[in-house]
Amino acid sequence: MNKHLSAAALWPDPPELPLPAIMAQRWLDAVFLHWRIPESSAARFMPPGVEPDVFDGSSWVGLIGFRMKGAGIGRGPGIPYLGSFNEVNVRLYSREPDGTRGVVFLSLDANRLPVVLAARQAGIPYVWSRIRSWGTPPGTPEGTGGGTSGYSVSRFRKGAASRFSVTPDLGSVADDPLSIHVTARFGLHSRFFGRTIHIPNTHEPWALHHADVHELQDGLISSAGIEVGGPPESVLYSPGVRTQFGWPRVVTGSLGVRGQSRQQGQGQDIRRPASPGLR
């Protein structure tokens, strides 16, 4: 992908999901940290039927933290307690042969055990962790930067931990092609009972701001099986968006071996709800 393409050309129109929507939720105080990695490092984690979505000759791995707020079934109210929690995920970027883009999660840490157990039943790699968040105080004047926003994660099992925070520049607008590439993602690719599925979602464009790393001590990316070095090349902050999820579909050809499955990107719907926290 040409890094000189305009942001407007890269940001797709948010898709309209067939009714009924199966879930709605808000993602707040999102922090995005991204590192450049070789395409071959990402390719080994791609489910059959999809391949790494490359930008500027590289794949990208993201460490993302946000606060889930008011996740609920359909367009109904948020589920008390279980519908609001902190999440930190490690993710890669995927693409079907027909151009459908998505994310592939390597891990998703959350501090609600019932949510973790339900999501793992659907094949989504959630991990039960203790997560603390802190954010820019409400009402911070535009353009002042307004303090730090960050997350700390400590897993109850397997021992991996992370702590990261950024100082947002709330007077900036992050509309460069790389920022759009790693945030204009309207679905995920995952394995479900031996098949690759795509779970779509839709939301308005993120309000993205450039940010500076304030603190970074991470063990989640290496725990997922990817090594990065040095500071992240992309650092972003967003106050958040509201999103809705649609029904999953099977990616055609995903039952075959990887070399035979990159033929078609369309498939049948699976009438099974997605889990909270999928972006």
Core attributes:
279 residues, mainly beta, Acetoacetate decarboxylase-like, nine-stranded mixed barrel, 12% helix, 42% strand, disordered N terminus, disordered C terminus, DUF2071 domain-containing protein, ADC_dom_sf, DUF2071
Architecture overview:
There is one protein chain. By secondary structure, this protein is mainly beta. The protein has one domain: Acetoacetate decarboxylase-like. The protein is 12% helix and 42% strand. The protein has a 9-stranded mixed beta barrel.
**What structural category do the secondary elements indicate?**
mainly beta
At the fourth level of CATH, the homologous superfamily is Acetoacetate decarboxylase-like
Q: What profile does the largest beta sheet have?
A: 9 strands, mixed, barrel
Q: Report low-confidence residues grouped into runs of 5 or more.
A: 1-8, 141-145, 256-279
CATH class: Mainly Beta
Q: Beta fraction of the residues?
A: 35-45%
Percent in helix: 10-25%
What is the CA-based Rg, rounded?
Answer: 18 Å
- Report how far apart the termini are: 22 Å
Query: How many beta-strand runs?
Result: 13
Which second-level CATH architecture applies? Answer: Beta Barrel
Bulk shape: globular
Tally of discrete structural domains:
1
Our count of helices gives 6
Order of helices and strands: HEHEEEEHEEEHEEEHEEH
Averaged pLDDT, please? 82
Give me the CATH fold name. Acetoacetate decarboxylase-like
Region (Disordered): 257-279
InterPro entries: ADC_dom_sf, DUF2071
Protein name: DUF2071 domain-containing protein
Biased composition (Low complexity): 257-268
